[in-house]
Design brief:
With 181 residues, this protein is mainly α. It is built from seven helices and no strands. The longest helix has 29 residues, at 53-81.
Amino acid sequence: MNLFFIRALRAAKLDASLFDEVMADTKARTQAIIVVFLYGAAVAYGIFGRGGVAMINSAIFMTLIGWYIWAFSVYIIGARMFPESRTTADRKAFMRAMAFASSPGWLCLLGLVPGLGITVWVGASVWMIVATVVAVKKALNYSSTYRAAGITVVCWILSTLFQGLMYIIIFSAFGVSKSQF
């Protein structure tokens, strides 16, 4: 477990060699899944924790779906639609790198402190985007940081819009209002 936290910290520190390491380590799949689930839980409890059990469970589910949409769309666009000449694409290795790039999202748990929710979410999101740019550049063998950043940001925006729509639909179905935040 110590290796797990060291890897998550290295990803948060934007250590590019970490992404090569987890892409090469096929046994890191379980660790990658845990990183993403902890991210989903941090968002759910930190940002939506005051809304009750239904809201927390819905937020975990929607955050995980949103993360997957982001990661998979970055893979499809980066590896299939706009590859560079050196781009190699191993989907499973790519997803492990993307998973570890979400470790800065654990900071969303600090949203439990009243008044910090949106600020923490924005800061953690920017940090995750930067970590993802590093991961995408390594995972797809890009020489251009701008290409990695462009694809990452466009896919993040699409994922965030989809997630926002899901939050509106699901929370309105449960009768959750803004006053519960």
